């Protein structure tokens, strides 16, 4: 099924005729090899005769020689699994084309030409969900990164910009709604119950931004007046039964449009903006020009079926895709190595948007938590790559936390160094200079230097060096001088051993122990390997708060007393730093416990200090609940594992749970009081009520550890009285981990209450797969045979198996059974949906950083996958890199 990989005789490639079978080694594509394409395609016309089993595509391309490229006497049009029906050149049928592997190569003389190609595709057979596919009876497309070549032959690379005129035709009853990019220019009925529509997108775009949707959909509509007074018609298209759950998505869209005008001066540029929700989707959503296609998960919400977290995620993803209209569409990427140019920038934009909507402090903490849980392990493992990679075999594997989230952190550092006003001047200049172009990361950096007045010569290393820098910090005190010593190292990664120091902007403050305050924050930029800075006027040794607001994506290593951390957890005026002090307190303790470096008495003292700090968090009535909820969260398993060169996941999990038990016991009355107080707030969506729901869930987590019987009763009561999904899911999460009847009854109730609602049934699968229940593995095996489980739906697969792969006690079961289950899943899913299958490789790829017995079991599973014939390019690349 993976035609792209092995050229064969049938492809008509003469050199292949006598050659021995080629080992399945997909080629390595290198950034350094970029060459402009010899031809330009100023205009593209597409005609679709739509059908679920078969869709006929007629594509007409205007091509002209590219004045900026070396001339060529052929044009190579990419295809992927396509069969040609006919080719015309300048209106006449031609036969002198040939297939070279999956691509069509056509001889072409200098000058302008028109190429017409007819081919058929089968949406119903497309289980990869790339190209044109069927989902619940509707047709839709996904083209990023290289899906357009699965629809028709085309120079499928982001530096080929074309205007699109798209005509679609099909049965009215089956496809009453016909959508594509841009504006609808005409529509009409044709014979035999058929109709058609024609859409024109005046903005030249790369093929990865093409989209088409045809189906039985209904819309919530609204309108937005842009800053220059243009009216834009907005629509969110869903299945009829989902219409009541579209209000939040529409609100989020209008807020995004307004915010981008105010924060970045960006105005929308078409008369319509359509969003379509699709339940079979590989990723979160896609920014196709004027026609964003979304996973239903990031569109549909009401209080009964979506959690507060879901509401925020929807707002963030709607913002993200909308913001791509400028950072991605108006200015696109020259090649896929520049992916962070659009993704890192757009993630930063969506983070700043959500900060403005939800509150800066909590959003920053959440973003850092994701970075540490997902990107840090990536950066310290076999799949580490710079935010601008140098090579790949399958680009789908590079839609990573590094390109997205670390990419955003790199831009955020520029913003921290320049200040928000100058940073905006930099982005203004970038948009002005490169509007309508396919640009590079270098273009962005240059615009930032010129527009913001920064010198980024050394800073460019952040684009080429992978690995999370480590900064060793020590503070000494003598007389009235405090001396800060900083030392940075960028760790070796598989791509490169020797690294250079990078500029690391560190926001810091020195607190006076007596007054609990400081004289103002400073920004120190650590550009050299080592640096010391003296601060005068400190009669007593101050308390250092460093990397405030997480000003740099680094790991800070320092000897710091428990006393200082307790001080910062209670006094720091930077909310992130306060959170960080709580995390550090727990991380230091658990690392020491897991390394057997504490006496019983020292361990007791450590627990006491943590309990004391947490008690303050629970009872400090100046804290708002939303922030309190953050401060209550224990560091996650993956972040803890990152602290060890070689981690024992079983031990880390056990010690983390033991600490929860100790805290639950020590703080039982405070936790119950907090839960009671928070339960008095109304079930509304305002900030205070949302904060209350967050602390309720956290309180139950600790109580479930400390006093399971009491917690089970409280959780069952919360479940039964729940008026929101947040309360219901929070209670069920705790119950799912506690063996007993309350658990079984509520799980059955939950399923019966929401059966038929795919997104909520996903939650039901995920809760059981991620639970603390000792039999979680058995539960997952049973759920894999549940009638609602379906390998063809990525959301469902993720809800069971991603949740499972993130469940430390189950995935890392000492028997190796968890590893085997994930490997079996990869092998079963790879032939159906390679892109999604490959996303399950990284959890197994961590083996080098895991204790030897488990490491051997993980490695054996990777080897079993690697030894399988016919692997997709996606899975092949991830598995070989992970073993390499
Ligand atoms: N470009 C999309 C986004 O970040 C992500 C995506 C990539 C979606 C590839 C589908 C396929 O918004
Ligand atoms: Zn994006």
From TrEMBL:
Disordered: annotated span: 1-27
E.C. number: 3.4.11.2
Enzyme class: hydrolase
One Pfam family in the UniProt entry: Peptidase_M1
Domain annotation Peptidase M1 alanyl aminopeptidase Ig-like fold: ranges: 467-558
Essential cofactor(s): Zn(2+)
Domain Peptidase M1 alanyl aminopeptidase C-terminal: 563-883
GO molecular function: aminopeptidase activity
Name of the protein in its database record: Aminopeptidase N
Organism of origin: Tsuneonella flava
Gene name in the database record: pepN
């Amino acid at each position: 099924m993976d035609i792209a990989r092995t050229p064969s005789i049938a492809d008509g490639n003469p050199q292949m005729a006598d050659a021995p079978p080629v080992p399945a080694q997909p080629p390595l594509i290198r950034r350094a090899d970029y060459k402009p394409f010899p031809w330009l395609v100023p205009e593209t016309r597409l005609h679709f005769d739509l059908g679920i089993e078969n869709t006929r595509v007629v594509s007409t391309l205007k091509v002209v020689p590219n004045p900026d490229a070396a001339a060529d006497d052929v044009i190579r049009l990419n295809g992927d699994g396509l069969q040609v029906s006919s080719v015309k050149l300048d209106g006449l049928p031609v036969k002198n084309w040939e297939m070279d592997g999956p691509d069509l190569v056509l001889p072409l003389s200098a000058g302008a030409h028109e190429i017409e190609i007819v081919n058929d595709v089968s949406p119903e057979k497309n289980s990869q969900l790339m190209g044109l596919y069927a989902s619940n009876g509707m047709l839709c497309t996904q083209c990023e990164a290289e899906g357009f070549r699965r629809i028709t032959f085309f120079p499928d690379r982001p530096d080929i910009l074309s205007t699109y005129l798209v005509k679609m035709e099909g049965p009215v009853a089956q496809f009453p709604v016909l959508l594509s990019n841009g504006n609808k220019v005409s529509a009409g009925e044709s014979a035999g119950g058929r109709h058609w529509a024609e859409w024109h997108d005046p903005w030249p775009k790369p093929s990865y931004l093409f989209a088409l949707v045809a189906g039985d959909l209904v819309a919530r509509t609204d309108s937005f007046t842009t800053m220059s007074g243009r009216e834009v018609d907005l629509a969110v298209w869903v299945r009829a039964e989902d219409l009541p759950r579209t209000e939040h998505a529409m609100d989020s869209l209008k807020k995004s449009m307004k915010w981008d005008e105010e924060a970045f001066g960006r105005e929308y540029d078409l008369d319509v903006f359509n969003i379509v929700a699709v339940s079979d989707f590989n990723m979160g959503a896609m920014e196709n020009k004027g026609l964003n296609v979304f996973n239903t998960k990031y569109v549909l919400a009401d209080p009964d079926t979506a959690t507060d977290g879901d509401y925020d995620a929807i707002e963030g993803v709607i913002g993200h895709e909308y913001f791509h209209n400028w950072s991605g569409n108006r200015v696109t990427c020259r090649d896929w190595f520049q992916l962070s140019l659009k993704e890192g920038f757009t993630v930063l934009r969506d983070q700043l948007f959500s900060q403005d909507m939800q509150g800066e402090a909590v959003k920053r903490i959440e973003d850092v938590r994701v970075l540490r849980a997902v990107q840090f392990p990536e950066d310290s493992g076999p799949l580490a790559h710079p935010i601008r990679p140098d090579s790949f075999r399958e680009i789908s594997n590079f839609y990573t936390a590094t390109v997205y989230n670390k990419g955003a952190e790199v831009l955020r550092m520029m913003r921290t160094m320049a200040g928000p006003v100058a940073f905006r001047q930099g982005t203004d200049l970038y948009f002005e200079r490169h509007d309508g172009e396919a640009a590079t990361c270098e273009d962005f950096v240059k615009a930032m230097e010129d527009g913001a007045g920064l010198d980024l010569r050394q800073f460019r290393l952040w684009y080429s060096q992978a690995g999370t820098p480590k900064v060793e910090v020590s503070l000494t005190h003598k007389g009235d001088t405090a001396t800060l010593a900083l030392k940075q190292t960028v760790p070796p990664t598989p791509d490169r051993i020797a690294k250079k120091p990078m500029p690391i902007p560190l926001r810091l403050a020195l607190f006076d122990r007596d007054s609990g305050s400081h004289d103002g924050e400073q920004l120190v930029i650590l550009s050299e390997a080592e640096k010391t800075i003296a601060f005068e006027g400190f009669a007593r040794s101050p308390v250092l708060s460093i990397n405030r607001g997480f000003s740099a994506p680094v790991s800070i290593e320092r000897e710091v007393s428990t006393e200082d951390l307790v001080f910062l957890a209670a006094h720091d005026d930077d909310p992130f730093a306060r959170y960080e002090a709580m995390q550090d307190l727990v991380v230091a303790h658990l690392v020491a416990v897991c390394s057997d470096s504490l006496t019983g008495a020292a361990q007791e003292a450590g627990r006491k200090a943590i309990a004391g700090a947490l008690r303050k968090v629970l009872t400090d009535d100046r804290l708002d609940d939303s922030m309190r909820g953050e401060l209550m969260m224990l560091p996650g398993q993956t972040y803890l594992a990152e602290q060890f060169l070689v981690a024992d996941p079983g031990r880390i999990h056990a010690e983390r749970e033991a600490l929860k038990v100790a805290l639950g016991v020590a703080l039982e009355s405070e936790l119950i009081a907090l839960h009671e107080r928070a339960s008095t707030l109304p079930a509304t969506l305002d900030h205070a009520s949302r904060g209350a729901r967050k602390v309720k869930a956290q309180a139950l987590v600790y109580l479930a550890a400390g006093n399971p019987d009491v917690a089970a009763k409280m959780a069952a009561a919360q479940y039964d009285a729940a008026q929101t999904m947040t309360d219901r899911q929070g209670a069920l999460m705790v119950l799912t981990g506690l063996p007993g009847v309350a658990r079984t009854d509520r799980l059955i109730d939950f399923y019966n209450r929401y059966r038929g609602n795919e997104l909520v049934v996903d939650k039901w699968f995920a809760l059981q797969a991620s639970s603390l229940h000792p039999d979680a593995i058995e539960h997952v095996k049973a759920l894999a045979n549940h009638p609602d489980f379906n390998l063809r739906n990525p959301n469902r697969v993720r809800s069971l198996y991603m949740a499972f792969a993130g469940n430390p006690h189950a995935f890392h079961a000492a028997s190796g059974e968890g590893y085997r289950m994930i490997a079996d899943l990869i092998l079963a899913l790879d032939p159906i949906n390679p892109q999604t299958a490959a996303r399950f490789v990284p959890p197994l790829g961590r083996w080098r950083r895991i204790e030897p017995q488990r490491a051997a079991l993980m490695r054996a599973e990777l080897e079993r996958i690697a030894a399988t014939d016919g692997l997709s390019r996606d899975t092949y690349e991830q598995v070989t890199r992970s073993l390499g």
